């Protein structure tokens, strides 16, 4: 399955820019959706399901773990791949994230082409 769309959920506009740039350089045909926090992402996901979600942990309004809890409870169909992209190097954050069946990867910022190759591999590209 080719990646056609990715939702990037991050409150930092610089990180959003880096993700957008990296994704477009990796494959300019991928549609990049953006949300600044988990609540905005949930609203967006009521309208469409992207192929992948790249999620930060530390955000105001609704952090990454609060998003994952609500996403698991509210949606019966999940994006094929959810990956956390964070500056957190805490093992407990990685362990907590990977407890969700739809979370497939955990990357450290910044987003890199290698991360996108992993996502593509998880989607069967």
From TrEMBL:
Residue ranges occupied by any Response regulatory domain in the UniProt entry: 5-124
Keyword annotations of the record: Phosphoprotein, Transcription, Transcription regulation
Cross-referenced InterPro entries: Bact_response_regulator, CheY-like_superfamily, Sig_transdc_resp-reg_receiver
One BP annotation, GO: phosphorelay signal transduction system
Entry-annotated residues carrying 4-aspartylphosphate: 56
Gene3D superfamilies reported for this sequence: 3.40.50.2300
Protein's name in the database: Response regulator
The organism of origin for this protein: Shinella zoogloeoides (Crabtreella saccharophila)
